[in-house]
Amino acid sequence: MIEKEYKYVLDIKKQQEIRDYLEDRCFSIRLIEQYYFNESTRIRCINEVYNPINYNGVEYYFTAKIPLRMGHGCYEFERPISEKEFNAMKENAISCLFKKRYSVIENGLKWEIDFFNSNNENVYCILAEIEVDEREGRPSSIPDFITDNLVLEVPENNKDYNNYNISINGINKG
């Protein structure tokens, strides 16, 4: 699968207001742990804590991403792994991150809003993301809850806000 995504940093000072909005409208809430071996390979545990339509419970995955030579995006390969494999592999990770993900449909598009936190404690970044077909650009309509709380529209190919760099460096506040 070719993945092309656009990201938007939201105002952390408004996290409760954003969370209240999302909890009233989301179709899924997941707690995610991601462990990185390098910039392009990771494992993750996804614990779906809310999904009234298609509850999946806890799932484990191995993912590899290969950047495209031209343009924005990457090939993404993902396969399920067992809990035992996950626990054995995470011991060799060079970094990790924890986030709570809300998924909502706005204007017919699926948006994922991640609240990055320190070991499921203090939130240090809120990132809204949309994945689109490789031939598409940024969405023409961005939901009000994003534009009303927008701090930064992340430029294409900006690596400061990819999950790997967030797991290594945190957030560049400069």
Give a brief rundown of this model.
With 174 residues, this protein is of the alpha+beta class.
How would you characterize this protein structure?
The chain has one domain (2-169): Beta Barrel (Hypothetical Protein Pfu-838710-001). The chain is α+β, with helices and mostly antiparallel strands. The model has no long low-confidence stretch (mean pLDDT 88). It has 4 helices and 9 strands. An 8-stranded antiparallel beta barrel has the order 1-5-4-3-2-6-7-8. It is globular and about 40 Å long. A hairpin with a 6-residue loop joins strand 4 and strand 5. The protein has helices at 15-25, 83-90, 144-147, 163-169; strands at residues 2-10, 28-38, 41-50, 58-67, 74-80, 95-106, 109-117, 123-132, 150-153.
Q: Point out poorly predicted stretches.
A: none
Summarize the helix and strand pattern as letters.
EHEEEEHEEEHEH
- Helix count, per DSSP? 4
State the end-to-end CA separation.
34 Å
Structural class: alpha+beta
Strand order of the largest sheet: 1-5-4-3-2-6-7-8
Shape: globular
Could you give me the name of the CATH homologous superfamily? Answer: Hypothetical Protein Pfu-838710-001
Q: Note the quaternary state here.
A: single chain
Beta content comes to over 45%
CATH topology assignment: Hypothetical Protein Pfu-838710-001
Number of domains: 1
Question: In CATH terms, what is the architecture?
Answer: Beta Barrel
Number of strands: 9
* Fraction of residues in helix: 10-25%
CATH class placement: Mainly Beta
Task: Quote the average pLDDT.
Answer: 88
